[in-house]
Amino acid sequence: MNEKNSLLKWAMTYGLGLGIFWAIKYVFFILGVSHPMFNIVYWILTLAVPFIAYYFTKKYKDEALGGKISFFHAWRYGTMLYFFAALIVSLEHFIFYQYIASPDFIAEAYHQTINLLKQSQINTSMMESLSKMPVPSPIQMAIQGIFNNIFYGIVLSIPVAFIVSKHASAPASPETNPEKTEE
Predict the structure, then answer these.
(1) What is the mean pLDDT of residues 43-72?
(2) Closest CA to 109 of 69, 144, 72
(3) What is each CA distance from 132 to 18, 114, 121, 128, 139, in whole angstroms?
(4) What ranges in 96-181 are assigned the alpha helix state H?
């Protein structure tokens, strides 16, 4: 039970940090709508996300667990880290789609995606189904963003968990880690 509480507490704490990073990163996406050069910064920051998740997972392993973690435990932690970060940044997603983006931004992006799929010559019955789908609302886009980020977390936490669980760390001393006491 204590392990689960610790997992949740640390995932929420570092998930907040990752969510704030994503919110800052998303500002560059928003700026990239009108100034494409900001998209480069957005993508560079996006590529940094797995490394930040690695850092937070390693920090969790060292500070909360005394330097030892199983693959599955690290994977669960990483997935929860992405979940809490997704909740934080979803508010910014909603605000962007609802109040900042032009009213036809979602519809235009949706239609561009359908046109791109038409050019790639996918199945015509699938294209008809996609064409008949309604354009998503801002809240639907924010919720979809949460699910996308959780999926990315599930996938990207696999290599991070593998690396973190395989590398031994020096155990933290009780003086530097007040939560982890000797029994």
Answers:
(1) 95
(2) 144
(3) 37, 11, 17, 6, 20
(4) 105-119, 124-132, 138-166
